[in-house]
User: Which sequence fits this backbone?
């Protein structure tokens, strides 16, 4: 379509508005993280009275941020690795074999994605508490409890997306490898998986983001011991002073890795996610 | 109506159905079951069994005295449900209010997220310099960890130190007194704005993907016929995007209706009635009073409601595709 003046003006107006709407919070986050404490305790100012990197230094001692960081990294990394591994196995089965219950499996898995966390939060919490009392396995307040919970959150999407990727890889590749005497296992890891690598990486990033940003279960299943960043950042607000400059600095630091990861894998992720919405 | 298969290469959906008819026999023996076993076990353990337990919990008097020994909790039948839907009682009244607030919130957030997403997708439909930049920029709120984005809004909405009051009161002089944004009725407005900020990029992405499946020559033909851009949007874009829009709005509805992060990070323990979304309400009803039986009954009511909406949605879309 030809560019009319009206459509060019519309485009300019819309883009300006959306850019402001999108970036103002990002701007506040970035500039406030460079303000001295006095600046964020008085009326808001657009610019810092003077630039200081102090918030990035003191944020580590106001609350045990490093401890939360370690927890988040361990929980998200392990949950991601296990979840992606399980998803690869399941997706390979769905993509390459016909078996009874196959469609039941995919439908059930996908429908668990639909239900809000609060529905199974209470019973899961109770089950964890009772496993502790009856078997002595501690799941509330430990990383392992969070890991096994989180790894299921990304599982449906991961399986679904990987099935799509595996379906796109010709079966002839498998067959050729099998004829050459490779085992099914070897075929999956050495032939099929390398071809589906973009999909695996996107799924891993999605999985990591899910665990990294999870708030609801973290707020119930964490104690000082295994607290993750998602709830750890709230600790700044419980101090006698609310250190908004440090909160913004910490928010910035915890956001950068996932935003960069997301933007790098953008193309693959977006294809998978929008398709997921349209399913 | 070709948009769906193109942007949703539903894995194996259509091809396998056809193949199944051709050769119904199974392949791989026990191997596929072994491969899906870990996924099945984890889904059972974390989602399906807890949900079944949740249904059972809603029928027992599971208060804090019985948390560690729940088998001792007395069976009370439908009592938890009766209390939850007794709208003359305080519990029922609050639940009803929370439900209504959630409906209003969900409707507004979905509407605006969709509208902004549509606007952005349409103005970025054509190639121009800087298009890729805007595309990436608009994704950032969605990529940001939920709590990091919402906590920034929390700061911006502070009465004395926030940016919002600074603009409204100090710079534009719209009111003399500084309004509260995180307590009282304004909490609702804050909630809606923050939810839109986080959600519209997803609508944008989905609509953008849908637009790519509309062939350019349809627009060119319309232009030859003298259709102006607005008319072209109404006559071509909107109908062609209908399948995408239906699913998108349904997904946005599910997300907003069950939104927990936004009220939780925005209000913390304050829980203003105007911002008391249903997930947040159930969470507080359960963990502040430790009355899990009552919380489980509310969860089941929420589940029933979501299932009714999903059923209606499926009936509607199936009839439409049957008519098409």
Assistant:
């Amino acid at each position: 379509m030809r560019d009319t003046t009206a459509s060019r003006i519309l485009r300019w107006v819309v883009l300006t508005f959306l850019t402001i709407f999108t970036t103002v919070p990002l701007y506040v986050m970035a500039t406030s993280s460079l303000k001295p404490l006095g600046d964020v305790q008085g009326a808001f100012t657009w610019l810092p009275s003077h630039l200081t990197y102090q918030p990035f230094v003191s944020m580590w001692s106001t609350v045990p941020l490093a401890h939360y960081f370690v927890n988040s990294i361990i929980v998200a990394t392990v949950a991601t690795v296990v979840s992606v591994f399980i998803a690869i196995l399941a997706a390979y089965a769905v993509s390459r074999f016909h078996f009874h219950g196959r469609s039941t499996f995919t439908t059930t898995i996908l429908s668990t994605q639909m239900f809000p966390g609060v529905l199974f939060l209470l019973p899961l919490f109770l089950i964890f508490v009772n496993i502790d009392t009856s078997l002595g396995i501690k799941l509330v307040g430990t990383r392992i409890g969070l890991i096994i919970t989180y790894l299921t959150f990304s599982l449906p999407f991961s399986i679904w997306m990987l099935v799509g990727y595996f379906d796109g890889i010709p079966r002839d590749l498998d067959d050729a490898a099998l004829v050459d005497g490779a085992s099914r296992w070897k075929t999956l890891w050495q032939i099929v998986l390398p071809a589906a690598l973009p999909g695996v990486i996107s799924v891993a990033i999605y999985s990591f983001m899910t665990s990294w940003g999870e708030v609801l279960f973290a707020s119930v299943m964490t104690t000082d011991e295994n607290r993750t960043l998602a709830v750890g950042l709230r600790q700044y607000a419980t101090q006698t002073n609310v250190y908004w400059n440090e909160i913004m600095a910490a928010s910035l630091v915890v956001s950068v890795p996932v935003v960069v990861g997301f933007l790098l894998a953008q193309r693959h992720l977006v294809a998978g996610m929008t398709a997921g919405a349209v399913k | 109506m070709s948009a769906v298969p193109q942007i949703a290469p539903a894995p194996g959906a259509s091809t396998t159905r056809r193949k199944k008819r051709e050769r119904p026999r199974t392949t791989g023996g026990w191997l596929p079951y072994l491969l899906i076993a870990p996924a099945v076990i984890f889904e059972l353990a974390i989602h399906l069994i807890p949900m079944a337990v949740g249904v059972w919990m809603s029928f027992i008097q599971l208060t804090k005295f019985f948390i560690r020994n729940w088998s001792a909790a007395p069976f009370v039948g439908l009592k938890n449900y009766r209390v939850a839907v007794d709208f003359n009682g305080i519990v029922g009244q609050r639940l009803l209010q929370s439900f209504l607030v959630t409906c209003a919130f969900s409707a507004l957030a979905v509407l605006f997220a969709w509208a902004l997403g549509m606007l952005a997708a349409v103005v970025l439909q054509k190639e121009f310099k800087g298009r890729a930049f805007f595309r990436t920029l608009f994704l950032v709120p969605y990529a940001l960890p939920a709590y990091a984005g919402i906590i920034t809004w929390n700061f911006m909405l502070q009465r004395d130190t926030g940016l919002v009051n600074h603009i409204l009161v100090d710079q534009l002089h719209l009111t003399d007194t500084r309004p509260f944004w995180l307590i009282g009725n304004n909490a609702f407005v804050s909630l809606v704005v923050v939810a839109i900020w986080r959600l519209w990029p997803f609508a944008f992405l989905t609509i953008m993907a849908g637009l790519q499946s509309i062939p350019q020559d349809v627009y060119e033909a319309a232009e030859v016929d003298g259709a102006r851009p607005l008319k072209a949007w109404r006559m071509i874009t909107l109908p062609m995007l209908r399948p995408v829009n239906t699913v998108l709005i349904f997904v946005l509805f599910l997300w907003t209706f069950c939104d927990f992060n936004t009220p939780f990070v925005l209000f913390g323990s304050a829980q203003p009635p105007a911002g008391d979304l249903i997930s947040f309400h159930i969470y507080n009803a359960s963990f502040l009073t430790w009355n899990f039986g009552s919380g489980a009954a509310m969860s089941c009511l929420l589940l029933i409601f979501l299932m009714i909406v999903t059923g209606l949605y499926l009936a509607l879309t199936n009839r439409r595709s049957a008519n098409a």
